[in-house]
Design a protein that fits this description.
Helix content is 14%, strand content 27%. Strands 1, 2, 5, 6, 9, 10 and 11 form a seven-stranded mixed sheet that branches. A five-stranded mixed sheet has the order 4-3-12-7-8. The relative contact order is 0.22. The chain has one domain (2-22, 32-171, 182-220): Oxidoreductase, molybdopterin-binding domain (Sulfite Oxidase, Chain A, domain 2, Alpha-Beta Complex), CATH 3.90.420.10. With 235 residues, it is an alpha+beta fold.
């Protein structure tokens, strides 16, 4: 990895786009035949949003860097999907209970990972539900069939294999340990790596995670010959 003054504080450029996420030593979860995103929480009635519906909404393409909280950055990635703001305004907002003031969203993936976004962060212009990466459909290592992408926040916000969104009117209570407690917003340029300690303080600790993540990723990564991104590059 290389230091780069154009990157956010504490980040180093990675060679490629390494796999990351929960249960790294295992293969990615299977994609359902008819995938949906469950919409729950402060909606009048819970409903399932078929991913096929996204194809009927205006498309968004962005070029953005991806920043892992451990300290590596994958640069110049090209994502395509639907703006989350579009999904929210067209589908979620009309389903809210009358008088509801939304403050947060709890997003969950098929792999069990969860992240919380403030509604302010979720409705940023560059946040999207992505289905394609660099001109190809997402593979298992990077979040098939669709994932949240929030470029201004650390990667732990960008849930892979997006399968459920809970619409919330207050910040959720989450049980987390002291050592690796996530920051409630995780904004990259503010170096919000940790929920209690300044980002610069925890940099050395977080960088020790890169080697074990790389090892686990190599065990769980997809090996399909048709999967052009399956082999994780060195970091």
């Amino acid at each position: 990895m290389q230091n780069d003054k154009r990157l956010p504080p504490g980040q180093r450029r990675a060679n490629g786009f390494p796999r990351f996420g929960s249960h790294l030593s295992r293969p990615a979860p299977a994609v359902p035949a008819d995938p949906v995103i469950e919409m729950r929480g402060a909606v009048t009635e819970g409903f399932d949003l078929p991913l096929a519906t996204l194809s009927t909404l205006p498309r968004l393409e962005i070029a953005a860097d991806f920043h892992c909280v451990a300290g590596w950055s994958a640069t110049d990635l090209h994502w395509e999907g639907v703006s989350f703001k579009t999904v929210y305004r067209a589908i979620i907002e009309p389903a809210l209970r009358p008088g509801t003031t939304v403050t947060h969203l709890l997003c969950r993936g098929l792999d069990g990972w969860e992240s919380v976004l403030t509604i302010e962060d979720a409705l940023a212009d560059d946040v999207l539900i992505a289905e394609n990466l660099n001109g190809h459909p997402l593979n298992g290592d990077h979040g098939a069939p669709a994932r949240l992408v929030s470029p201004r926040q650390y990667g732990y916000i960008s849930v892979k294999h997006l399968s459920r969104i809970d619409v919330l009117t207050t910040a959720p209570e989450r049980a987390e340990g002291l050592l690796l407690r996530t920051h409630p917003r995780g904004r990259v340029w503010e170096e919000e790596r940790h929920g209690l300690f300044p980002g610069k303080v925890v940099r050395p600790l977080y960088r020790t995670l890169i080697a074990p993540i790389r090892f686990l990723s190599s065990r769980g990564a997809s090996r399909s010959s048709s999967d052009h991104e399956s082999r994780p590059p060195s970091i």
